[in-house]
Amino acid sequence: MKKPRGRVTLPSEQNFLNETKELMERWGADAIRDSDGTKLDDEIKKLEAKIYTTYFVARGHNDFAAEHMDECQQLYLMSEFNTATAEMLEIDLMKGYFTEQVRPDYLHDPKKYWEVVDRTSGEVVNTADWEVDKETNRVVIAKAVPWHEYTVSFLVYMIWDPTQMYNHITNNWGDKPHEIPFDVRQPHANQYMSSYLKQWLKDNPDTDVVRFTTLFYHFTLVFNNHGKEKFVDWFGYGASVSAAALDAFENEKGYRLRPEDFVDQGYYNSSFRVPTPAYLDYIDFVQHFVAEEAKKLVDLVHESGKEAMMFLGDNWIGTEPYGKYFASIGLDAVVGSVGSGATLRMIADIPDVRYTEGRFLPYFFPDTFYEGNNPVIEANQNWLTARRAILRNPVDRIGYGGYLSLAYKFPEFVSYIEKVTDEFRDIYDKIKGVKPYCGLKVAILNAWGKLRTWQTHMVAHALWYKQIYSYLGVLEALSGAPVDVCFLSFDDVMNDGVPEDVDVIINAGDAGTAFSGGEYWANETLVATIRAWIHNGGGFIGVGEPSAYQYQGHYFQLANVLGVDKELGFSLSTDKYFVTPVNEHFIAADLTRFDFGESMKNIYALSEETEIIEYSDGEVHLSSHSFGAGRAVYIAGLPYSEENTRLLMRALYYAAHKESEFHQWHASNMYCEVHAYPTIKKMAIVNNSMAEQTTLVYDGDGYSRKVTLEPSEIRWEDFSDER
Fold first, then answer.
1. pLDDT tens digits for range 117-129
2. pTM higher than 0.85, yes or no?
3. Rounded to an integer, what distance in angstroms lies between the CA atom of residue 450 and that of residue 285?
4. 171 is a domain residue
5. Given pLDDT bands bounded at 50, 70 and 90, which one contains residue 723?
6. Domain Lacto-N-biose phosphorylase C-terminal: where (predicted)?
7. Does the chain have fewer CB atoms within 10 Å around its N or its C terminus?
């Protein structure tokens, strides 16, 4: 019997033809790609497979870039904070920055495009009171106020692409030239990007898929003076700004942006910051420009008879797939790195493309594939995590990246990926385009809404951070859960109310962040709208510091809904008598332990009507509270785990008043899950662990039977309407 083939992309490289053929057969690959730093031999390009070729629009063209250094991409940077001890203060602009990556822009008038700020008073220093010493990269302030802090916000040229810089350092590329990124907003660069692509398409007839990596502007990634990452924001728009962009923005929007709109006191508008109206205007401005210019390139690709694919990473700013201009680009596909179930859904749920592709981990790089390490461990964890999400909505293809020659040295890894690719094709063939059973509709409420679908609480894609794992667990749990998920912004709610089909709203995050909401919660329309919706029967779950904003006697502005608030020290004189947990509760019925991650301190119950589910160290960590016909649940934190996924699911059903439906298409063992597909009368019983598991499996009517699953097993069964 011939091995199934398709839906898998294999990385390859020069002088690796026979091994490539072998792995194509074993993994069933029907597409071959190059990677950053590799090329494909002509013999490989002639294999029976689609050929993906990496294409850099705005980097990797050093001959052109070197002749037009005035058209390099730019950034706004902020100097370190400097304390004045006298009226004269010198500020070293480049202190703490990597001079091989950026250099100050002296071509455009600093007095027009830069800003010196007194960070103690918040006032902008008059341009007449400071000068620039270009030889030493210093700003000299003549009338500083002693003991005030000062910063300089200044434009720089980015003279080394940050992704190539990262790969250069990680893979020891030595003397390989630094790739200089250019700005397609500039006249020569704009003309060059089109003319070069036209010729490239003629010169690469063997290419079937042009893999744009990505398009124009890199996410914000700035290195320090030691060549280490200094600042990274996967959503940052810093590298899209320039003197030309500022002038064009003023012409289009009717007002001028300040440097402060970009450096943002040194926070650089990270996605955790509540976005200002000016910053949202700038995002819209860039997205519109990028979509228009990207469409021109995609049209050229299509005219040549090839497909256009975008990598969801690197230079992806302005191309966000959930933005309002994305569809107009006309891309055939999007490919992205899969680090979790949430990132799998972020890719799989993208609208307006013919297919999506997930680049699975680990990358075939020497930081993982070295003697003594076992890459199967990471690959297994990556697959089991992503598989939950695939069973809700699969990507159309999977693949890997890096140096195939490294992976080939690990036979156990090669064999494991053979099993993964077979299992993926089997899942896809069964359920693609089939709506799975969903018991609830859940809305994630934050300042970003739809634009950041499946992207909340991320810093550098799916990397772990202490301050976020207690919130990312919410998304990760939902990514493979039998619920519909949508993303709402506070503006959506204020303008249009809560969608009628939403059962439960989740607001999760630290106070002051875009994900909790910050000053949005002082808006009476927002608060009243949500209170009314819950009172009329809606469900609400708050995680961490939901609705947190100190205002009018509350820290949680939905404290009366949640039944809890946070003690900030202002009300220590008011006794807190309500500390007794309930004996049992639907939400905690399956749990033997609690894990709230970093948790939250000083949460207390407001009245005896609050049902305290977990109370320890003098604090409430889990509770529920009725509000009119609705219910609210408070959770101090929710790292991802099987236990916390079960806790969240029970909390959702309880908040929605749907406890009686909880055992439909359900597994009693929390390490197992049931995914049902009513229209095709199939169900998948899944073991999400690496150990054998026994579970009760409940059907759509709540009837159960016992099933034992092998480690990581997925068992497909047919069912009928007569049970």
1. 999 999 999 999 9
2. yes
3. 17
4. no
5. very low
6. 665-716
7. N
